[in-house]
Design brief:
With 174 residues, the chain is of the alpha/beta class. It folds into 2 domains: 2-123, 4-Layer Sandwich (Nitrilase/N-carbamoyl-D-aminoacid amidohydrolase); 126-174. Helix content is 39%, strand content 14%. α1 runs parallel beside α2 (47-58). The chain is globular and about 60 Å long. It starts with a strand and ends in a 19-residue tail after the last helix. Residues 146-174 have low confidence and may be disordered.
C-alpha cells in the first residue's frame, strides 16, 4: 500500500516464517513491513530474530509488535531502533521512528540462488567430503580408544597417566 511514508505491507505472525511469502514484499519494493505477532515466552528469544532476518534479506524496515513477547523496530540493515519485552516491563507502548526508505537487495530480486549454488558445489564435492569424513573418523576413533584405556587403567588401580608403551592389564571391556 502506497502511503505518504512510503510503501508499507503487513504480514501476520507466522507468515513471516516463510521466506518466499515475505520475499513478495521485497519484490514489490516495500519500505516498511508491519508484522504483528502473538509470541509466547518459549519462542520469545527466537521468533523476533527470524523476522529481522526476513527484513534484512528484503531490504525493508520492520515494525514487529508482539503481545505478549518482544516487540521490535529495526531499520533495513537490522539495526535496533526500539524494543520492548512485555515479560520484562510493565510498559505497554513502544515508540519508534522507523526509516521510510528501502535498500535494494540481491535476495529480493534473485531469491535463494546463492544457497542453491552452495548446495550444488557441496554435492559436486560429496565423494571427497565422504573420504575426508572417513579419515577424521579414524583419527577420532583412536582418541576414543585412548580415553577408554585411560578409564580402564584408572578403575583397575593403575595411574591414568601411564605411557601407552607400558603393558596394559587384561580387561574384560575389550
Amino acid at each position: 500500500m502506497e502511503t505518504e511514508y512510503g510503501k508499507i505491507a503487513p504480514a501476520i505472525c507466522a507468515d513471516a516464517d516463510y521466506p518466499g511469502f515475505v520475499r513478495q514484499a521485497g519484490k514489490n519494493k516495500v519500505d516498511i513491513m508491519f508484522i504483528p505477532a502473538d509470541d509466547w515466552k518459549a519462542i520469545d528469544t527466537i521468533h523476533p530474530h527470524m523476522v529481522v532476518s526476513r527484513a534484512i534479506e528484503n531490504g525493508f524496515s520492520l515494525v514487529h509488535p508482539a503481545s505478549p513477547g518482544l516487540s521490535i523496530a529495526k531499520d533495513n540493515f537490522g539495526n535496533a531502533i526500539s524494543s520492548m519485552d512485555c515479560y520484562c516491563t510493565d510498559e505497554q507502548i513502544m515508540f519508534a521512528d522507523v526509516p521510510t526508505h528501502r535498500t535494494p537487495t540481491l535476495y529480493a530480486i534473485a531469491g535463494n540462488w546463492f544457497a542453491w549454488i552452495c548446495m550444488a558445489a557441496l554435492y559436486s564435492k560429496a565423494e571427497e567430503l565422504y573420504k575426508l569424513t572417513l579419515q577424521w573418523t579414524s583419527v577420532f576413533k583412536g582418541c576414543a580408544i585412548a580415553t577408554r584405556w585411560q578409564t580402564i587403567l584408572a578403575f583397575s588401580g593403575y595411574s591414568p597417566f601411564l605411557s601407552f608403551a607400558a603393558p596394559f592389564p587384561a580387561s574384560p571391556f575389550f
